[in-house]
Amino acid sequence: MPNLPRVGLTMYGKNDERHFTIPSEYIDSVTSAGGLPIVMPPIDNPQTFLEQIDGLLLIGGGDICPSCYEQDSHETVYMMDQQRDSYELHLFLAALKLEMPIFGICRGIQIMNVALGGTLHQHLPEIVGEEVRHRLPPRHPVNHTVLAQPDSRLSRILKSSEFDAPSWHHQALDKVADPFTVVARARDNTVEAVEITDRKWCLAVQWHPELAPDDPIQQRLFTDFINHCKS
Questions:
Q1: Which pLDDT score is estimated for 190?
Q2: Among 1, 68, 103, 168, whose Cα sits 20 to 30 Å from the Cα of 76?
Q3: Is 1 a residue whose pLDDT tops 70?
Q4: HEC states along 60-108?
């Protein structure tokens, strides 16, 4: 049996029962694409994990503490976890330095942007209104259209520049950090995907492709990511 590419996945922070958790959809998407998921709870030395994996997947979850990008907290910010923030910011920068494939989903795109000096819109409805719904109240996913740049890596992977995607967030990128290029937006101009064009594979999306296991467009993201982890 060939060795499967090992994909490190971040996890939700410790809950009230002192458990670290991860939604099964992330695990299922990695395994369906041919990868071996390695879950990575916050530890003091993320370098230990990075030495054991071939690619990094930064999953979704609660909001990043606004102090990480030098802002006061909006009243709608929730599920902040400073241990998880610190760990994931450090983890991403270390993985980037190693030039391993990196995939960010929802909170993941926000971690990647903040780590490199970007900022976030803390409550998107106050910025773009609600003509495009990025989540349903109180906190439920919803689909909306995403428009990708036709000449981007993202469009080439997905084989499409316009598609529907599961969305589940109330925050999004504001100031986009260098060296990211914005490669997809929603119809209300919300940033939906960024990539670093001169890296082997460094791409992040604001939506949740793991929530669409039967959509071949969305699952192409995991397949291409895993294929680059193999090499």
A1: 98
A2: 103
A3: no
A4: CCCCCCHHHHCCCCCCCCCCCCHHHHHHHHHHHHHHHHHCCCEEEECHH
**Cis peptide preceding 46, ω within 30 of 0:** no
Options 106, 121, 144, 170, the catalytic residue: 106
Catalytic annotation present for 123: no
* Residue 200 clears pLDDT 80, i.e. is over it: yes
Q: Convert the pLDDT of each residue in 152-191 to its tens digit.
A: 999 999 999 999 999 999 999 999 999 999 999 999 999 9
Reported pTM: 0.97
Give all domains of the chain, ordered by start, each with its CATH number: 6-230 (3.40.50.880)
Chain centroid offset of residue 21 CA: 17
Residue pair 37/52 in contact by the 8 Å Cβ criterion: no
Q: Is 210 a catalytic residue?
A: yes
For residue 156, which phi and psi values (nearest 5 degrees)?
Answer: -65, -40
CA 150 to each of CA 42, 131, 162, 230: distance values in angstroms, whole numbers, following the listed order: 37, 24, 9, 26
Active-site position among 88, 192, 195, 210: 210
